[in-house]
Amino acid sequence: MTFPENLRYTKDHEWIKLEGNVATIGITDFAQSELGDIVYVEIETKGKSLTAETVFGTVEAVKTVSDLFLPVSGTITEINPALEAQPELVNTDPYGEGWMVKMTVDNPDDVEKLMDAAAYEKLVG
User: Fold this and answer.
1) What share of the chain is helix, strand, coil (3-state, %, to 5)?
2) Model pTM score
3) pLDDT on residue 105
4) Which fold has domain 8-108?
């Protein structure tokens, strides 16, 4: 399992990559492996301003449906269009082509408060 050093992580197994005040968010390699084959990603929060830890969508795997939680407060500006036709990208490339949303972050300092790779790796152990 991989835990890229350039990302921050949540206890709910989302990752976030901040560039300026724009963040890209997805689920971790650990999360996708626990869920199994992902068959559908539903995100209908584009354009919405949400607070941290709010559900921003769901991911459906063969055996279960799981909520997706926003790591920090902000406004969702983009949903990964590739996931509509290829939800399995979340399984095959969770930190790359399998990203879920992009957002404008209200307070970039909030990202620094999330877990780094070492802390997340310890959590999932």
Assistant:
1) 20, 35, 40
2) 0.95
3) 98
4) OB fold (Dihydrolipoamide Acetyltransferase, E2P) (2.40.50)
